[in-house]
Design a protein that fits this description.
This protein is of the alpha/beta class. It is built from six helices and eleven strands. The chain has a single domain, classed as 3-Layer(aba) Sandwich (Rossmann fold), CATH 3.40.50. The radius of gyration is 18 Å and the shape is globular.
Length: 233
């Protein structure tokens, strides 16, 4: 089953647009254009996928969004649910019946959410089982490892971080504990090394079959984020 843009009534979609910032749809900035090729079909409609831990930055009004916070001033989600699992059952999204069965989804998109869990491998596998074979896990994560990439080390970036007292990488849990910098919701230090090591470990222990299609560094909040596109084999 494919899901395209949901054709809400004009008043409803206008209210959504007033309250939400979108990565996707008509409001997708150049920084996030790469997401389109992984999430849309040849007709330009979104495939059967979800946005997990959306906060105030939903991928699109045409993609079902999930966040544990039901306060619409913060989380502009369709479903209020703890994102550690996706055992939701069935949800009516627009005119479609959306089922959260194992092996059901074409993609799962999640931006700056996975690092908020203590047991990332467990959460990852909970999400992973909902993907169909050839489905994609699309993750945008803060780079909390040492970052010396070109993206984060232009003179302008260095000067900004110097003035703001920031580093090229996101603040770690240790930074937050030491000097109260960083995000208090973070529970695990993540980055390229962490994720690639985790995937290799799960290939051996959990018989995970996957292929990393993309692993890039992109600027985000004047620090570096890492985007992963992982294909289920």
């Amino acid at each position: 089953m494919m899901i395209g843009y949901i054709h809400y009534g004009g008043n409803m979609i206008n209210e959504i647009n007033k309250k939400c910032k979108f990565f996707g749809g008509d409001r997708m900035g150049d920084e996030f254009k790469y997401i389109e090729k992984w999430t849309k079909n040849d007709q330009g409609f979104f495939r059967h996928g979800i946005d997990v831990g959306c906060g105030t930055n939903r991928l699109s009004a045409g993609v079902l969004a999930i966040d544990k916070n039901a306060d619409k001033r913060y989380a502009h989600s369709n479903i209020a649910h703890d994102c550690k699992d996706l055992e939701i059952g069935t949800y009516i999204f627009g005119t479609e019946e959306f089922k959260f069965l194992d092996g059901e989804l074409d993609f799962i998109f999640s931006s700056h959410c996975l690092e908020d869990f203590d047991n990332i491998p467990k959460v990852f596998l909970n999400w992973w089982k909902k993907l169909k074979v050839d489905g994609l896990m699309i993750l945008l994560l803060p780079d909390m490892e040492v970052c010396d990439c070109e993206v984060c080390n232009t003179e302008a970036q260095k000067e900004y971080r110097k003035t703001a007292g920031m580093s090229a990488r996101y603040q770690t849990l240790e930074d937050h504990k030491k000097n109260n910098k960083g995000n208090p919701s973070h529970r695990t230090n993540v980055g390229k090394k962490f994720m690639t090591a985790m995937l290799e470990d799960m290939k051996e222990k959990s018989k995970l079959k996957c292929e990393i299609l993309q692993m890039d560094t992109i600027p985000h909040d004047k620090s570096c984020s890492v985007d992963f596109v992982i294909k289920k084999m």
